[in-house]
Design a protein that fits this description.
183 residues, 4 helices, 4 strands, HIV-1 Nucleocapsid Protein, two-stranded antiparallel sheet, alpha+beta
Amino acid sequence: MSKNAQKHCTICAKAGLPSEVYSTHYIRESRDPSSRVTCPLLKNNICSKCKLKGHFASTCKVVIRKKPVAASAVEKPKIKTKNVFDFGSEEESEEEEVFPKQSEKDYSKRFTLECWQIENKHLLAKPEGERNTERYYWDSTYNVFCSKNFKIIEKRVMALTQVVTILVPEPKKSSWADSDDEE
């Protein structure tokens, strides 16, 4: 880079810095890609791939490759089989129950339930038998108001780091085609 040429840093210019800043330096000391970086923006940039300073992720030389997993190395699910004639010879191992994470639908349903409570708050002064309206009924099991077309169910979910029981409204079955065989 010649001494006579006007200094110009394209990184600082593209970043929208004034000409007083980008005309004081080049990106590097020389045209050699391995030369020392002189651009203050580039020097202080932390690469999102390797977390090192001095380059952008688009020019990062560190390539993080995951080792390909061989088909034989993949852990197959263990299917527990038990001989029906073998009573009590193996100790039964109790596995922890896995709960689903609280979904966006659950949040929405809980919000709907809260809105029903606010809408019917004035009925709380009445005795339990007189709290039912055209659209809502009082569920004495959970002490909440619920729409006539819904029922309240308990659902155990993982909320952040702990298992909690939440109340969510679920539609009631409206015809024989909606019913489960279990009931």
